[in-house]
Each structure stands twice: as structure tokens, then as C-alpha cells.
Q: What sequence folds into this?
């Protein structure tokens, strides 16, 4: 079976020295357009209490000199991003009236290098020679056919000649240099699982994922990720410059981002691979509906707002598509306090954070395993027909992230 999906592939620019100045000018222009539009929207907001819609703001900006610094579609994309930022602010104001609106793009006395999006008429792609031609706005052209010709290189396992189409290209400053992001339509041939087994996942902050497979429970703690955050956040704050982030601060931020991305990709890939090997065709993922709207105190709120449950779900869905595993988003309401064996939902059964003891059937379980089993039972045809002994639910397997190999392994393998 084949499905069509959207994927983003990153390419490094091989002739960076030749095109860097041109990309810097385009990035500066994108920031300039954002700032002028932001100032205009702010004036209208102060006068009328409303923000102009995307359409009227685009019409107004077309008469500004900076508009023609970029290709028309690239300039329009900047306004669309600003409009989305204002919409997010409106949504946030309903919960927090102290929320700040979108700001101006400025680092000290200079504008930052904003990302530039090139849509259909803003680029010409030559995948056979790993080259792409990016358009400039009329203000930045030295002559009629002036453009930026970038030579790029993707990962060895990526071949852009095989994608159905490149939808758009983004030039992104990663802190050290420009890189190209190709947003593509790709046709994937999925591998259907042989069986119709069902698994459930309980997403958490300490144990990032607890999986109830048909034959085993597995915990995936986030210890390694927590250590990275502590180390690199401290390095970032200790080296913050007076006029914006210092070079070391930017290095720490980028390093943490790369490690987080690798961690979540590896975790999702590991879980989906386990599903395929165990004959699991459907995976029910707990979804903490409206969890960030609750007040858990200063420390609790900080943890909740850095909890990347939505990111992990997206990665699982992404991997599941490729391997024929259906990833389902299920509300986790009351799964943490309900007994997975008998259905008793007495609140006091949750003895402490990691322990669940049922007052009715005397099930003793790891609390996260109990929650994961409840998620599995949301879609399995026989919710209480399987034997789940105390030993199985109380003492799950633990798979830790091994820094040396960059993979998840059993606790015994990592320790040794």
C-alpha cells in the first residue's frame, strides 16, 4: 500500500561563501517587512482595538518600499506568519491577560536573519545536479535575471529526484550558517503489520512514554534528556550577552535542540519498531486534553509548558505511517485513577506518583503501566479478557537512552 505524505528535508549549502551575503540581505528584508507590518498593526490596534486581517494588511504593505525586497509570495508569507502569531496571542489572552503580543525582530541594534520562504514561483529546482535557484525581489536585483544559485547536499539516504514535488523551500539561519529546508510531497510504500494487535501509551514527564504491549510493559524514562536540558540551559544563561545571545549561548541552544530532536526521533522509531516486531497494528496514545490550562503551581506549570507530548505524538504518527501502524489520539481522562483490571475508579487507589493499588481487586501496579493499559483497552476488543498479573504490571521493563550508541537499550545493557 502507498500513501502520500508531506516531509521536510534539510540540505546544507555547499557554496555558502558565494551566496551568504545575498541570503543575509533577504533575511534582513524579511525582518524589515515583519517590523513594518507589526508597527502598522500595532497602530491600528491602539486606535480601534482590532488587528487588521491578513488581506488588508497585505494590500497596505504592497505600497511599502520594503515589500519588493523579496519575491511577492515570500513577502506574503511574512504577513501570514505575523497574522498567525497574532492569532496565537488572541487565543492565549483568553487564558492569560498579561500575555504579550508578537514583538519586533531585533537583536541589539540589528535585525536578525529571518527565514525566507520561496513558494512555487520563487524557486527553480534542479535535483539532478543538487542546485536550486532562489528569486530576489526587484529592489535587490542588480539586473533583470539576478538570482541566487545554491548548491546543496542532503543526507545520503535522501534523494530529492525521487519525491513527487517540492512544495516550497525555506532558507533558514541555524545560528552558524544558512541551510535549505525542502517541503516535499512524498509517496511512501507502507509495510502492513501481519497481526491486529493493540498497544497503548501513557505519555508522562518523568517516564516520557510507558507502553502496554500485548505481552509486556516497557518504560522509556527521560533522564538523559533532562540532564541535557540542565547542562545546556545553564551554559546558555551563563553566557547571555548584553545585546542578545552570545556565540556560546547560541551554541548551547543549538546543541540542545539537536539532541532533543535526535532523542524524540529515536524514541518514536524504537516504539514503532517494537510495535511491528510484536504484531501491533494500532497504537492508542494518551492525549492530555487542556492540561496546560490547569494551574499546577510555579514548578508544576514550568514542567507542563516544557512537556513535549504533542511533539512525540507527531513523531509517532510520522513513523507509524511508514510502517503501517495506526497511531490513534485518545483522551486520557481518568485513565490514571481507574483500575485496568476491574475498572474501579476510586481516587485513593493512586497511592503515590509511581504506585497504584486497587482497593477492589488488589491489583498492585506501576501507575504509568496501569494508565498505559487503560489506553490500550480503549480500542482492544476484549478489554478485560487477558491475564495481567501483579508482577507484570508492577515490574515493567525499563529501556534507557544509551549516549554511546545513541539508541534505547535495556537498563542492564546501558549499565554494563
A:
Amino acid at each position: 500500500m502507498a500513501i502520500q505524505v508531506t516531509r521536510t528535508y534539510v540540505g546544507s549549502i555547499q557554496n555558502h561563501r558565494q551566496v551568504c551575503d545575498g541570503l543575509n540581505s533577504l533575511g534582513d528584508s524579511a525582518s524589515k517587512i515583519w517590523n513594518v507590518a507589526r508597527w502598522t498593526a500595532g497602530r491600528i490596534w491602539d486606535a480601534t482595538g482590532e488587528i487588521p486581517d491578513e488581506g488588508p494588511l497585505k494590500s497596505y504593505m504592497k505600497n511599502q518600499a520594503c515589500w519588493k525586497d523579496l519575491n511577492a509570495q515570500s513577502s506574503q508569507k511574512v504577513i501570514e506568519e505575523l497574522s498567525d502569531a497574532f492569532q496565537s496571542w488572541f487565543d492565549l489572552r483568553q487564558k492569560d491577560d498579561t500575555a504579550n503580543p508578537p514583538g519586533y525582530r531585533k537583536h541589539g541594534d540589528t535585525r536578525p536573519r529571518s527565514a525566507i520562504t520561496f513558494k512555487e514561483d520563487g524557486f527553480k529546482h534542479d535535483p539532478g545536479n543538487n542546485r536550486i535557484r532562489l528569486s530576489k525581489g526587484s529592489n535587490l536585483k542588480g539586473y533583470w535575471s539576478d538570482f541566487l544559485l545554491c548548491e546543496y547536499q542532503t543526507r545520503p539516504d535522501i534523494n530529492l529526484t525521487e519525491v513527487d514535488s517540492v512544495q516550497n523551500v525555506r532558507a533558514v539561519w541555524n545560528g552558524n550558517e544558512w541551510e535549505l529546508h525542502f517541503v516535499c510531497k512524498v509517496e511512501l510504500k507502507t509495510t502492513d503489520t501481519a497481526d491486529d494487535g493493540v498497544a497503548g501509551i501513557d505519555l508522562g514527564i518523568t517516564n516520557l512514554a510507558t507502553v502496554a504491549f500485548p505481552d509486556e510493559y516497557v518504560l522509556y524514562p527521560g533522564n538523559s534528556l533532562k540532564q541535557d536540558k540542565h547542562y545546556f540551559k545553564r551554559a546558555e544563561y551563563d553566557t547571555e550577552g548584553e545585546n542578545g545571545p552570545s556565540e556560546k549561548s547560541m551554541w548551547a541552544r543549538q546543541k540542545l535542540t539537536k539532541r532533543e530532536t535526535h532523542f524524540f526521533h529515536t524514541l518514536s522509531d524504537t516504539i514503532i519498531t517494537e510495535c511491528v516486531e510484536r504484531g501491533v497494528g494500532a497504537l492508542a496514545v494518551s492525549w492530555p486534553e487542556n492540561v496546560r490550562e490547569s494551574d499546577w503551581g510555579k514548578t508544576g506549570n514550568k514542567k507542563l509548558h516544557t512537556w513535549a507530548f504533542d511533539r512525540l505524538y507527531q513523531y509517532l504518527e510520522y513513523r507509524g505511517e511508514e510502517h503501517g501502524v495506526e497511531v490513534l489520539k485518545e483522551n486520557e481522562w481518568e485513565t490514571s485513577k481507574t483500575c485496568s483490571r476491574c475498572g474501579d475508579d476510586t481516587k485513593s487507589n493512586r497511592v503515590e506518583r509511581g504506585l497504584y493499588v486497587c482497593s477492589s481487586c488488589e491489583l498492585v501496579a506501576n501507575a504509568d503501566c496501569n494508565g498505559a493499559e487503560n489506553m490500550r483497552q480503549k480500542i482492544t476488543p476484549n478489554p478485560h479478557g487477558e491475564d495481567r498479573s501483579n508482577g507484570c504490571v508492577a515490574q515493567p521493563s525499563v529501556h534507557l537512552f544509551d549516549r554511546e550508541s545513541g539508541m534505547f537499550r535495556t537498563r542492564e545493557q546501558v549499565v554494563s
Summary: Residues 296 and 302 are 9 Å apart (CA to CA). The chain has two domains: 2-189, 197-415. The mean pLDDT is 84.
